[in-house]
Each structure stands twice: as C-alpha cells, then as structure tokens.
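Task 17 of the worksheet. Students: predict the tertiary structure of the chain below and write it out as structure tokens. Keep your answer in the requested format; marks are given for formatting as well as content.
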Amino acid sequence: MPQDSIPSVSRTLADFVASSSWTDVEAQGHEAQRSILNFFATALGSARDPVVTAAMRTLSPFSGAATSTVIGHSEPMDALCASFLNAVSANLLDFDDTHPGTIIHPAAPVAAPILALAEMRKLSGRDVLSAFILGVDVECRIGNAVSPRHYARGWHITSTCGIFGAAAACAKLLGLPAEGIANAIGLAASQSAGNVENLPSAAKNVSVGNAARNGLFAALLAQQGYEAAPRAIEGPLGWARTMGDEPDLARLFDGLGKTWEIAKNTYKPYPAGIVFHSVIDACLLLRERMGLRVDQVESVTVQGSALLLARGDRPVNNERDARVSIHHCVACGLLLGAAGVTEFAHESVVRSDIAQLRQKVRAEFDGGMPDGAARVILRLSSGDVLSEAAVSPRGSRDAPLTDSDLEGKLREGVRSGRSDWDADRVIDAVWRFDMVDDAGHLLQSLRPQSASLQTTSN
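Model answer:
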C-alpha cells in the first residue's frame, strides 16, 4: 500500500480526539480527578519555591491579559505564562504522577495549559476532564511508540512527549476539527525538547514548562490556520527518527479508544524518582526490624537493575541530587524513618549524620531485579546481616495511593509549600469538577480573595 494512502499518526490521533466525547471517557473521569488532585498537591507544594518565583519575575514584564490562575498565588497571569509556571511547579519536586510504561509524568504538561485555557473560555468541567484524558492518552501513546530507547538516549520524555498531549488537549478545547488538531500535533513536533542530563537542575523543569506552554501555543497557531507536515511524527525526517527512533506504530495505536493510558497512572508517596521508591520502602522495613540500632550500620548494599544504578548511583551535592540518589533515599528510610518533602530539603541533605550514612551505601547491579524493584542489605557491627526486598512499592499499580492519601498529600503540600490557599476548598473543587458548568469560575474561586484585595490596595 502506498505510504500516502496510510493515515498519518497526527491525523489518526486527531480523528480520535475530535470524535471523542465525555460519554466515551466518562469511565476514566475519577482517575482524571485523582491525577488533577495530585497535580494541585505538587504545584502547591512548590509554588513559592525560588525557582518558581524567579520564573514569575522573569515572565511578569511580558505577560499579556491576566486571565489565568497561577497555583498557590493570588494574582493571575496570561494563559501562556500560567501554563509554564504551573507545569514547572507541579514537576519541580519530582512528586508528580507517573505513567509506568514510559516514566512520563502526564499531568504537568497537559493539566497546566487546559486549566489556563478554561479560564479564558466558558468551559464545563466535563469538557476539561475529557480533554485531559485525551491529552494524556496522546502523550503516553506517543511515548509508548518510542520507549524505552527514547529516554535511554537522553530525551526527557515528559517534556518531549508531553507537548503532544498538551497540543491535542488544547486543540480539543478550542473546538478545532480533526484537521486542526492534526496540525496542532504537527506543530508540537517542531517544539519538542528536553534532556535527561539536566535532571539535577532547574533546566529540567523549564522543558516541562515549555511543553505545557508550547502545546497551548501550537493549538492556538493551528486555530489561526497554521499547518504542519502530515507525517511530522513518523516521517523519514520527522520527530521520532530525528530523535533517533523508529516509532512502533503498533504500540502507539493498540487499543486506541478502548483502553486508556490514564488508567495506568500512578502517584508518588515520596518526592523522589519513582525507581527509588522500592529502596525507600525496603529501608523503612529494615528500620522497623533494627529498632534503634541505626548507629550500628557498617555498610549498606543496594541491589537493583541497570536503570536504578544509572539514575541513582551519584554523589549528592544539593537537594535535587538527593531526589535522584540511591544513597540519600537509604538515609531517609534508615535514619529518618520518613521520606517526605522535609527529608529531601536542603537542611536534611547537608546534615552530617545523613552525609555519613550516604557514604556507607554501595550500589550493585542485579540482572534478576526488574526495573522499579530493589534489595537492600545491611551489615551491622554486631555481625548481623539484614536484608529486605521491595518489588511493588507503595504508590505503584499493585499498591496504589487511595483518594484519602492524595487528599493528605495535598494538605501536606499546602503546609510545606507555605501556601495561603485553602486545602479543603481545592479538594472539594476537584472532586466536583465534573459537575460544574464553568470550570474557569471554579478555578478563580480558589484564589485567596483577601490576599488579592490586599495586593491590589497596596
């Protein structure tokens, strides 16, 4: 069959997005709300981080009409800036949701722009949730087609694939026909970027912010008639091959419209790379067994897959390093007995006792351990050897966080992030999102009015 007669990736996905309605995705509605609740939890937890406030200062002079909420703050900004900032804050602490098959963090690049767009237009909560579910499906399916080689080659897959989900979801909310949605996806291919080398720095978050903002930008350009190459993703010189991969189109389209990638989503109990969660769980179990004998630990061996070692066998120079460090995760579990935001903050990272324990940790490859699993072996001064393995850590699909866990995570995000937002109001808003006629009005109601009025009067 001639290549030109085969529908392109962009057009096939666009036809799917354009033809889908709330009725088609309603069964995934609750999972979408869970993902958005987690999105707010992580964004509120870092909304006042110096990285986010520096980005706000940088963008403020260039912001247009202030239509869209910046999570954790009272004053809105334009939709493009709000998309960037909210995606950055949601991704900053490595605490956002994770699609296990690709290690994409789906919500940050998709939720940020569609919520910003919802405040510009009178859109129902169901319209927004539908677009979110479809956008997550697009980004993760494209990720499926190039995983695991894409990430292993150094592309930060949340950023590089997230932009496609953002573009498709925003184009859906703008009411574009299939041709326009396809063009938005193709335009996204020209703006896809982000590399793994930057993970220990704020440059990683910039690419996630750009995925959200530029996905919205791609949809807005398509609305104005901008066109893209039909095979911008899979063509001989298209996105996938220029980034080094022959796309697996069978994986991309398998079950399209019948199975949903958001149903595979997971939520983190710890603000660290997901491959380290088994290390933490195993260490927490060992701490229970040891009692108060942590000072007797002479050495720690962590056994795991090549992915675990490649991501986490690293020196710790700052809190960003700590969130992707086998050594620091061991210290959190064994010495602190907890692995929350506080345990990965600067004050904990520089503690002498934590630094000393990190030095006792050695990582060891075990080809029999699957990705995401870990075995921790302790050798004590008494001569005792203790070992624990974790294969399905808390927060994984086999041990998922409950709705109540996610609510608690949001409340803790408000507390640790020093936000003046009301946690209960945010939680209530997310759980009734599918019932509101004007999602933008609901989002605006979350901003602290007193703070806004005070800022205005000053």
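Marker's comment: Residues 450-458 have pLDDT under 50 and may be disordered. The radius of gyration is 22 Å.
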